[in-house]
Every structure is written in structure tokens, then in C-alpha cells.
Amino acid sequence: MSKHRRGARDNGDPLLPATVEQLAALERKTAPERRRAVTIAVAVAATFAVAATAWAVTGPDGGTAAPTGDWATGVSKSFTDGFGDAPSPTPLPPLPPRSQPQPSVSAAPSAAPLPSRGFGLAPVPGAAPAPDGLTVGGARSLRAGDAADVYVYAVGDLAAVGPVTPGSPVQTRQAATYTVVAGLADSRCFSFHTVDGRWLRHRDYRLHLDPDDGSALLRADATFCARDSGRGGTVRFESYNYPGYYLHRRDGGLWIDRSRRDRDFDVESTFVVTGPWV
């Protein structure tokens, strides 16, 4: 058996103190060494902290790091990523001025009536042609611009639109015949009266046949100004006291309606001036 020395290990390390007095003596001996190690560790940590702070402020290349905060324009500037300053933001171009909507302009009918003579319409089938067109003092009939046998005629005290042919009763052919005179309210325009002396006039937008009551209203209502329709051989009639309203065939009757820009209205508001039926 080998003999072990008291207070020592086999590898030469000292054994733990055997008594409390020996342990206290050992603590007093090693305390300065531990304090010195802690002091060194604190100093090293402080050195690293200072170095890191300086690197963040100056940047890796020794320049000044980009400041944080807001630009004078109010656009926030982002932090740099440690590899150079953040690029300055490019200002956006100014927005173009907003265009103002322009008011729509509707084409108004010409204010100047056509002269009372000189239409020179070509002969048409049906009633006898009227090459002179609208001639003051002459008897005429008004045919629909899109039909060979549809005419304006009187039914009671209303103006109607329907077929009139050489075989129609004489009363129907008389009701489709009008005497053309200078406009009662404007001599540059036209008025129409039947063989029994009643006037073709609008009332509540519908065309009526009324006797002359001597009023200015009837004279205005019974005056119509001829306008070029743009369709060869036809004419349109604009109301004298309702500008923009034209004689318009609809629902078997004759009305004044506001002009519309559509094909149906263009056709339904055109007329051919023919010779009289009687």
C-alpha cells in the first residue's frame, strides 16, 4: 500500500482544508486574485462599448454617419445600413393641373328663317308636285318626308297624319289642303289655314285647327319658320314662339317637339311641300 500524505491528492493538488480555520485562511489568500480578474473583465467590456459607440457615430470609413429624423419636407429619412450614407430622396415631379370640365354646347337651330320663296322642290309622286315649294298665297299640302302617301290633314279640331290618295273622300282631300300665307307673327315665316278659314296652330304642344280669335298668342302659335332639313327635297318647320321645337309626326298626330339628335326625329320632322289635293 502506498502511503498518502495528509492534505494532498495523488496528482499533487492540495486537498480541501481540513478545518474551518484553514478554509478562512484560504479565502483571504485568493480574494485579491478574484477582484483583479473582475476588474480586468469590466475594463475589457467598457473598452468594447466605447469602440462600438465610436464606430456607430463615425461610420466604418471615418466619415459622419447619416443622421436620423425627418427632412424639412416632412419625408422621413431611413437609417444607413452601415455601408454608406442613405441616398437622398428624389423629389417627385409636380402633378399636372387638373383639367376643368368644359360645358357641353348643344347646336341651336339657326335663328335666321329661310326666305318665303325659292325652295324649288323636285316633283314628287302622289299629289301634284309643287316646284315653287312654299309660295305665299298658294294652296299646298304637306306630305311626310319618308312616305309617299302620308299627309297632314284636319280631323275635327286636331291635326292628324295619315294616308291620303286620289281615291280618298273629297272631304279628306280638302282637309289635307292649306293656303300658305306670310307668318302672322313674322312675315319671314309662314302660317297655314284650311279651306274653312281655321289656322294650324300649336296648343299644349299638339297641333290644332282654331279660328282666328284676334289674339297675339294665336298669331304666334300659328307661325312656323322653314328650315333646311339637310335631306334633299324636304323641309322642317320650327315654332316661331318655341325656338328649338319643330313640327313632329308621332302617334298618328302632329306635335311640336324639342329637336333631338337622332335619326328617327330627323326623319319624322321632315316634310315635302306638294301641290294641293283640291
Polypeptide structure, described:
It is a single chain. The chain is an alpha+beta fold. Among the domains are: 20-77, no CATH class; 139-274, Trefoil (Acidic Fibroblast Growth Factor, subunit A), CATH 2.80.10. It has four helices and 14 strands. The protein has helices spanning 20-58, 170-175, 216-221, 263-268; strands at 69-70, 76-77, 139-144, 150-155, 158-163, 178-182, 190-193, 199-203, 206-210, 224-228, 235-239, 245-250, 253-258, 271-274. It has a four-stranded antiparallel β-sheet with strand order 7-6-3-14, with no helix packed on it. It has a two-stranded antiparallel sheet with strand order 1-2. Mean pLDDT is 73; it is low at 1-10, 63-87 and 98-126.
Would you spell out the secondary-structure blueprint of this structure?
Elements: H1 20-58, E1 69-70, E2 76-77, E3 139-144, E4 150-155, E5 158-163, H2 170-175, E6 178-182, E7 190-193, E8 199-203, E9 206-210, H3 216-221, E10 224-228, E11 235-239, E12 245-250, E13 253-258, H4 263-268, E14 271-274
Antiparallel strand pairs: 1-2, 3-6, 3-14, 4-5, 6-7, 8-9, 10-11, 12-13
Spatial order of the strands in the main sheet? 7-6-3-14
- What is the CATH C level class of the domain at 139-274, in words? Mainly Beta
Order of helices and strands: HEEEEEHEEEEHEEEEHE
Specify the helix fraction band: 10-25%
Q: What proportion of the residues form beta strands (DSSP E)?
A: 15-25%
The Cα radius of gyration reads 55 Å
Terminal residue distance: 166 Å
What is the tally of helical segments? Answer: 4
**Structural class, from helix and strand content?**
alpha+beta
> What do the pLDDT scores average to?
73
- Uncertain runs are 1-10, 63-87, 98-126
The number of distinct β-strands equals 14
Largest sheet: 4 strands, antiparallel
Shape: rod-shaped
Q: Using the 3D structure, state the CATH architecture of the domain at 139-274.
A: Trefoil
CATH topology label of the domain at 139-274: Trefoil (Acidic Fibroblast Growth Factor, subunit A)
